[in-house]
Amino acid sequence: WSVFVAPLEKAFGWTRTQTSRTFTIAVVCFALTFIFAGRLQDKKGPRICALLGSILVSLGFVLTSFTTSLIGLYIFFGVIVGIGNGFGYSTPTPVGSKWFPDKRGLVVGLMVGGYGGGQAIFGSIANYWLIPAFDWRATFQILAVVFIVMTLTGTALLKNPPPGYRPPNWTPAPGTAAAGADFTTREMLATPTFYAMWMAYCLGTTAGLMTISQLVPFANSVGLGSNVATIALVVSAIGNAGGRILSGAMSDRFGRVATLRIMVLLSAIAMPLLFLWQSEALLFWALVVVVYWCYGTQLSVFASTTADFFGTKNFGMNYGILFTAWGAAGILGPQIAGRVYDAFGDYRYAFFATSALALIALAALMAARPPSRSLARAA
Question: What does the angle CA 334 – CA 51 – CA 63 come to, to the nearest 5 degrees?
């Protein structure tokens, strides 16, 4: 999204707050659709959700290429692309969790790492080649064709394991739902653990979503230039995918919650430094990697933690409910950035504000414990 911000503002004279609202709408639609898509997948399997996601994302990109108004942009990209992402993104994580409970952190990291890593390819191609060569309208159309081909191929390959499947010679770890029984959504919502995780997920990912929505405009606003911004897209994707995959693997060894605590604390430290050291390209790239790494970790490890704590039988619905925290972060992050930039002409206070929110997320994670099934049933 961030590579389209400047061309749209130039074409229509829109403000940063107005364009940021598009990303916010997309994130909210994404998160809310995730609940319905998760339930549909639990009942009907992954392919129907993946197919709907494939069609809607590509359709939204085509329609966005014809937009002439903010309302059109909000509907075509914000709503249609957002809903399509909700269906598409809801699919690989539950499938991977069910096939590989013994390496869940790594495998879920690989699933969501593809999503984060895609921006390195498509963001860079769009920013550095397609938009300069063909303009932003044609770029939306070209990407729509690429996306429909790739996502339909992925849809054809998806399937769940047989009911009751377990890897050979695997014993569930004590304190996980796999060692006992799966939580229903009602039971999950009766545990204090869920609310601690929701708060941490929301405030912890606000920093990443703010940066994602504004990375290219931020780099340009501080005079780093288009080449630095393009490289920032690449290194951000490396951080994003690395956090999802490597931190996911790390959580298999050192624990989910411990991994999340470390990464949220790093995010709280890195956000102010990203603003303070904005003029040094190498430091800027390094801190972008850190911020995106911490963000990517949360997308991976919160999903794995949900499966560990509450089981995989109702994982689609359960994680969909928790994922609304990410949707709330999608409102906070971009809107903080857009309003601060429009008011002060730079992003200074936005970076410090998201750092403070990350510290609150850390406090919530300190309170997160494996849920008690007996207390959930009593409630």
Answer: 50
Number of residues in the chain: 379
pTM: 0.72
95 contact partners, CB below 8 Å, separation of at least 6: 46, 111, 158, 159, 160
* Pair of tokens at residue 53: 């996601």
3-state secondary structure of 60: helix
Measured distance CA(292)–CA(173) in Å, rounded: 30
pLDDT digits 0-9 by tens, 13-54? 998 888 888 988 998 898 889 888 888 888 888 999 999 999
How many angstroms separate the CA atoms of 292 and 233, rounded? 10
Q: Which of 44-48's residues contact partners 24+ apart within 8 Å by CB, and which partners?
A: 45/159, 45/160, 46/91, 46/92, 46/94, 46/95, 46/158, 46/159, 46/160, 47/155, 47/156, 47/158, 47/159
Q: How far apart are CA 180 and CA 10, in angstroms?
A: 57
